[in-house]
Amino acid sequence: MKRVRLSKSSLGQEEKDAVLKVLDHEFLGMGAEVQAFENEIKAYIATDKEVVCVNTGTSALQIALSCLDIGLGDEVLVPSLTYVASYQAISATGAIPISVDVKEDTLFMDIEDAKKRVTENTKAIMPVHYASNSKEMSAVNTFAKEYNLRVIEDAAHSFGCKREGKTIGCEGDVICFSFDGIKNITSGEGGAVLSSDETFIQRVKDARLLGVEKDTEKRYAGQRSWDFDVTHQGFRFHMSNIMAAIGSAQLKKIDAIAVKRQSIAKHYVMSLKDVEGIELLDFDYDDIVSHIFVLKAKERDALREHLLSNEIECGIHYKPNHLLSKYRSDPLPITEKVYEEILTLPCQFDLDKKDQDRVIKSIKDFYSGQ
Ligand SMILES: Cc1ncc(COP(=O)(O)O)c(C=O)c1O
């Protein structure tokens, strides 16, 4: 029996040709390809915000925090139900991730819970677009304004999604994407920081190249700085031309990718909505381009075993961070409850209908005792 994969990269001849072109040119590091990819992202999102590409989504979050001068002893509110990347990005700056509970229907950060956790050290909030949903962002922004907090959106899951008719990335304070191998589009590994705060963006541009001031412009022109100054902490977080070439080729396919991922999600919804034992998240699947398809399942672990025994991979996104030794904190009742229920089903561009129907049938068989 063919194994149905949970997630995978999907690359065609276009990506391979684009990489070969860069290899033939023998300029592999950060140069014109990166500038082109940034401009293409900006045009796709239809935003005036600046786009700065980096080497991973985790670096995007870390560099964003660092360039907002968030560091030692500062507190950042973050949902516990996220990949450990969000937490590591915060603690890498010396700041403290403060775990926040989620809402039971969408698994998005619960702003009422966040309010209880504000202290004089709270400097920022990092909402996560969990499973590509971010419809609750306006509540986050209102809260942040009231408490004078910076908002760093962990939009790792939501490239290509919309909110109230607008593409994610065109609104907000600071938005961070991931382009790792299994995200909605990939640049191999990769990430991006978006903002209209010009001072901040200049800091990020410099910081991704070890803090070398104005090196970005030189690199775009295929040069480098020889006489320069450094005033802030920097990192080796820039994106390479090879990565950007893959990203550009992927971005050209985003419409087809979005249609396919949306049709997968909608087929799961239609097929599973009446299955006793399954609870769907309260998402608007017209706006969402699902990076992962998450639902809540009764007897989740037994169902997972059943699917695996039928050669169907599934996942659990995520082990809550406040249960990890490094980030342990007080109980978060909703997060801990849903952690026992959540299950991620296969969702990737190459998933064909026959295989998806096998997933659906397996779930139905499980609950009907077959
Ligand atoms: C919610 C979330 N934040 C951040 C990241 C980090 O992105 P990257 O893998 O590109 O470092 C991921 C990656 O899976 C993620 O799921």
Describe the structure.
The chain has 370 residues and is an alpha/beta fold. The chain has two domains: 13-251, 3-Layer(aba) Sandwich (Aspartate Aminotransferase, domain 2); 254-367, Aspartate Aminotransferase, domain 1. It is 38% helix and 14% strand. It has 13 helices and twelve strands. A seven-stranded mixed β-sheet has the order 1-9-8-5-4-2-3, with helices on both faces. The longest helix has 19 residues, at 254-272. The chain starts with 12 loop residues before the first helix and ends with a helix. The mean pLDDT is 97. Bound molecules: pyridoxal-5'-phosphate.
- Output mean pLDDT: 97
For the record, what is the CATH homologous superfamily label of the largest domain?
Type I PLP-dependent aspartate aminotransferase-like (Major domain)
Q: Which CATH C-level class of the largest domain is it? A: Alpha Beta
Strand order of the largest sheet: 1-9-8-5-4-2-3
Number of strands: 12
What portion of residues is helical?
25-40%
Tally of distinct domains: 2
SSE-based structural type: alpha/beta
CATH architecture of the largest domain: 3-Layer(aba) Sandwich
Q: Enumerate how many helices there are, as a single number.
A: 13
Beta strand %: 5-15%
CATH T-level topology of the largest domain: Aspartate Aminotransferase, domain 2
Biggest sheet overview: 7 strands, mixed
